[in-house]
Amino acid sequence: MKLSEIALQRIKDSKSLPKKLREALGVSQPTFWRYVNNNSDELTKAAALKVIREETGLTDDQILEENGIAA
Fold it and tell me: Is residue 5 classed as helix, strand or coil in its secondary structure?
């Protein structure tokens, strides 16, 4: 599983979302941005998805892609 382009863009465009995701995942800023730039599976953990859902209003179908195809 990977994040969709829309979800990644919302993360990149937000001022508060990256901080909340770093806290939820318990990672440093450089590690977090490496996850975003590589579209890491770490961003699909339950804690991260909960934050993304709450902050963006996106549904799981809009947030996740499976093997490069929208879920």
Answer: helix
pTM of the model: 0.89
How many degrees, rounded to 5, is the angle at CA 40 between CA 60 and CA 44? 25
**Nearest Cα to 61, choosing from 18, 3, 17, 21?**
3
Q: Kindly state the tokens that stand for 41.
A: 């599976």
Q: Which residues of the chain have pLDDT under 50?
A: none
Cross-strand bridge partners of residue 70: 65
Q: Please, which residues bridge with residue 54 across strands? A: none
Q: What gap in Å lies between CA 37 and CA 70, rounded to an integer?
A: 19
